[in-house]
Amino acid sequence: MYAIVEIAGQQFKVSKDLKVYVHRLTNEEGTKVSFDKVYLLDDNGTITIGAPAIEGASVEAKVLQHLKGDKVIVFKKKRRKGYKKRNGHRQYLTQIVIEGITTTGAKKAAIKKETAEVATEEVEAPKVKKAPKAKKEDSVE
């Protein structure tokens, strides 16, 4: 079972016992967090898609730690101009572990074979009636 969920403005594919690094959350370490913006659920081949989110579905997680990501060096240069700028950046992150995916209230929308067959059948174009042709009259003899 997995889900596509929005956490801190980004979408992640999560499953149970998965550790994920997300943008810094305001929750304390050791607290539990619930995310309600679940966009897709897959339960052993039964796929449920939200419009835009699935009502009643949520993902439960626990905050493990707050940390900083790897250093990224930003270096800008314009050749033959003497322009060089060097800047560094470390992103603030939060490590969470997914404890479970709750699907209470979620409607299961499995694709039926009958619906797929109807969608693939060719639809006949409507018949168009042509206007009658005008008769030629003898104008000059």
From TrEMBL:
<dbReference type="GO" id="GO:0003735">
    <property type="term" value="F:structural constituent of ribosome"/>
</dbReference>
<dbReference type="GO" id="GO:0005737">
    <property type="term" value="C:cytoplasm"/>
</dbReference>
<dbReference type="InterPro" id="IPR001787">
    <property type="entry name" value="Ribosomal_bL21"/>
</dbReference>
<dbReference type="GO" id="GO:1990904">
    <property type="term" value="C:ribonucleoprotein complex"/>
</dbReference>
<dbReference type="GO" id="GO:0006412">
    <property type="term" value="P:translation"/>
</dbReference>
<keyword id="KW-0699">rRNA-binding</keyword>
<keyword id="KW-0694">RNA-binding</keyword>
<dbReference type="GO" id="GO:0019843">
    <property type="term" value="F:rRNA binding"/>
</dbReference>
<comment type="similarity">
    <text>Belongs to the bacterial ribosomal protein bL21 family.</text>
</comment>
<keyword id="KW-0689">Ribosomal protein</keyword>
<dbReference type="Pfam" id="PF00829">
    <property type="entry name" value="Ribosomal_L21p"/>
</dbReference>
<dbReference type="InterPro" id="IPR028909">
    <property type="entry name" value="bL21-like"/>
</dbReference>
<dbReference type="InterPro" id="IPR018258">
    <property type="entry name" value="Ribosomal_bL21_CS"/>
</dbReference>
<dbReference type="GO" id="GO:0005840">
    <property type="term" value="C:ribosome"/>
</dbReference>
<keyword id="KW-0687">Ribonucleoprotein</keyword>
<feature type="region of interest" description="Disordered">
    <location>
        <begin position="121"/>
        <end position="141"/>
    </location>
</feature>
<comment type="subunit">
    <text>Part of the 50S ribosomal subunit. Contacts protein L20.</text>
</comment>
<dbReference type="InterPro" id="IPR036164">
    <property type="entry name" value="bL21-like_sf"/>
</dbReference>
<protein>
    <recommendedName>
        <fullName>Large ribosomal subunit protein bL21</fullName>
    </recommendedName>
</protein>
<comment type="function">
    <text>This protein binds to 23S rRNA in the presence of protein L20.</text>
</comment>
